[in-house]
Amino acid sequence: MENTGASRNSGQAECEVSSSQPLSLSIEDNLALVQRIFSNDGTLRVRFIENNHGAPLRCCLIYVEGMIDRTLLQNGITKPVMAYPFKEEERSNPAELIEKLRTEIITLSDITVTTGLDELVEGIVGGKTVFLLDGYAGALSISAQGWETRAIEEPTTEKAVRGPREGFTESLLVNLTLIRRRVLNSDLKFVFSDIGTRTKTQTCICYMESLASPEILAELQRRLARVEIDHVLDTGYLAELIRDEPYSPFEMLGSTERPDAVVGKIMEGRIALLIEGSPFALTLPYVFVENFQAAEDYYINYYFASFNRFLRVMGAFMSISIPAAYVALVTYSQEMVPTLLLLSIATARLSVPFPTVVEALIMLTIFEILREAGARIPTSIGQAVSIVGALVLGQAAVDARIVSAPMVIVVGLTGITTLLNPRLTGPMIIVRLVLLFAAFFLGIYGYFFGLLGLVIHLMSLRSFGVPYMLGVGSIRPQDIKDTAIRAPWWDMYLRPAVIGARNMKRKLPGKRAGGS
Amino acid sequence: MKEAPRLLPLLLCIMMLPCLSGCWNYTEVDDISIVAGVAIDKDGANEKIQLTAEMVDIQGGLDQNQAGFKMLSLTGNTIFDIVRNMISMTGRKLFWSHAKAIIFSEKVAREGLIRTVDWYSRDTETRSDVFIFVSDEPTAREILNLNSTTKTIMSFELAQMMRDEKYTSSAPTVEIWDFIDKLETLGNHAVAPLISIHEQNGQKNERVSGCAIFSKDKMIGKLNGKETKNMLFAKDGIKGGVLAVNDKNGVPTYSLEILSSRTKVKPKVVDGKLLLQVRTVTHTGLDEVMTSESFSGYETISAIEERAGQALKQEIQSLIRKMQQEYHADIFGYGEIIHEHQPKMWAKVRDHWDDEFAKLDITVDSKVIIESSAKTSRSIKLGD
């Protein structure tokens, strides 16, 4: 964290004080330096402490209000320093005195001696308390951080009926604790760095040393080092900056709010990336089937979990296909529609003024508007959206013959099936529109042409060197154990291919602890 | 420029792909007129073809539970000419993929069907799985016109009827591809179901029963419903139906429901002469006993089986005789079977097969097996 390179600190060059300036012996001079750096910062606090029990001692504490725990500060620094009876000979040798303060008097842990001004400033903004001693050209940087954090709550985006209910918070350290508590093994590594030339956001790479692929780890670190951005507020920034295939609509890094999901991925040989201030952890490499996986799948009965997976895969397919297939059938291949169905569609479409494809576009757009409106409004007026959506736009539009009833069903099905895969919502909107236009221009042929293009695109993707469609289309049981189905745990004895290649064996094959 | 030769074939392939997708065109579904079925008549006055199309009418819209119908009739010299001229009456292009029935008048059938069937099987917009009928009434269009009394789309009803035909076996189900296939093969004669109007208590209904027999493409005769069933027995076309069996006094008493039936035809050459053995094995269930006597005591199951087999054998035999003597028409497809099993013999007879068929020695053997007696093993007994 300390040696982030001179270029990173260029932001501070605007201050008149050179960052490499050494501290002086005078406490007033040092204080003046610090105060000049923190001019116009109302949160900086300076507290002088005097001890006159033995030889008189003057020192001061500098910290940023709100970043420290006052009780800790009082009991750990202020009180013992004030009460300690210093002797004359101790007072005369500041270096020894500092050592004594560090080891015997101040009760807090994590104390470092700093001599450079920039280190000192960095400590203060990082929430540390800086202890200046009169007559010593240095300072103690003491950890007494404490700030308000959100409590650990159930993650709202990934709810599970069964399984752990803890979710990540915005505090990096809390998040790391949540991971660490699940893996009591020194093999779990946390590597810190900071990103953002101005915000210096703390990031942490988290992996199992014996499982993660060193090549992927090195590639991740190389990409993180190349990131040039002044601020990072969420892992979403990083996901976009370090991902492969920047123009593909599909996610190339996984993101989750659940510590148990992160640990699961780490145990497969994946690497997690967390940052301060974001409750979402990134996991990589990411493959296509992970879009269909939910943490709960691994905790419930595997038949049921496999059924749910199947529903999600089918839902994704339906969600991109239904409008396109409907348009292709109704405007080109009427002979493929069962007679009675065709009659009822024709009856419903009668006196609808728009072509089928325009109808589809109108309704799909309305659905997306409702979705976007519903996503950000307070829950108390959420009902209004559903009433407007269902009654006004659905029922009334059909009654007024502006859209046909089958189209409402088509769009409704599309919308519902989209909700099955929250991770794929974004890409599916794009794919759906592309397929819809292909079907409009070329009918069934165009629809299949579009699907073919989609498959080709997916097949060409790579995430950190791992094929995006890993396991899809394979016939080896251990490759498909965790794709469209979720095999029972006693049968998942290998880690995923390529990703877990460093240490494939998860357990002994076929070994069940229970009775046969 | 070095890339060009490699990319060119790829580009050509992509450009050719759209041509491979067959026949399609952009049309909104409410801009087409869906044809449900057609009737083809001879216009009495000028010997022109009269085509009557039953069309689905969607104008009723959502307020009606059922789609209505619309009739359209036009005369012309060729079928396609009429079909295209109809656009001037509907304002929309006719859509043929959902047509279910095509009905010919007897007059058209007797003059030869190739003239009228050709367009339907040749055109790309029509389907070859449409059901074919011959009208037993003076015209074909009056069958379709029945829809004004039944208030339903007649062609769809006829198609539904043909799908349920397996429960009665009183008419063959013939799709147009099948009909044309029979016309084209030697040693086989085409048949088509007969359709008539059944009137009782002032209520008119369509009724499919019996079949028309064709020689080449010309209709030469008719069979009634019962004969049709025997014909289906003789050519292994039975899928279901009922066998009524008399009791020992000659009173119709038992109904046997046909569960499955197989007919094996074996051609044999004995002393240079062709012999044909037809064996039918029918599995049935006893479904009706019109007597209060306990049938198991009254008559044994095997006796019923025996009598049913005998009756069936006689009926099949008499039908075959009729076909041999009256029509000289092999509607059973025996010629094809001989072709398959006795190719050398077939080579000798193929050129004058109809005459050979009339002289052919055919023996019939029928076996009826009763497998169960439905829900009860006894008759209804009268209480004292």
From TrEMBL, chain A:
Pfam families per record: GerA
Membrane as UniProt keyword: yes
InterPro entries for the chain: Spore_Ger, UPF0353/GerABKA_families
GO terms under biological process: spore germination
Keywords recorded for this protein, A-Z: Membrane, Transmembrane, Transmembrane helix
Membrane-spanning intervals of the chain: 310-332, 352-370, 377-396, 402-421, 433-459
Protein name: Spore germination protein KA
The family this protein is said to belong to: Belongs to the GerABKA family.
GO-annotated cellular components: membrane
TrEMBL record, chain B:
Annotated transmembrane regions: none
Keyword Signal on entry: yes
Record keywords: Germination, Lipoprotein, Membrane, Palmitate, Signal
Residues covered by the Spore germination protein N-terminal domain: 25-197
InterPro entries (alphabetical): GerAC_N, Spore_GerAC-like, Spore_GerAC-like_C, Spore_GerAC_C_sf
Domain spans labelled Spore germination GerAC-like C-terminal: 209-373
Localization of this protein: Membrane
Database matches in Gene3D superfamilies: Nutrient germinant receptor protein C, domain 3
Entry's Gene Ontology BP terms: spore germination
Signal peptide: 1-21
Keyword Lipoprotein attached: yes
GO cellular component: membrane
Membrane-topology descriptor: Lipid-anchor
Pfam families in UniProt: Spore_GerAC, Spore_GerAC_N
Family designation: Belongs to the GerABKC lipoprotein family.
Protein name, as recorded: Spore germination protein KC
Organism of provenance: Paenibacillus jilunlii
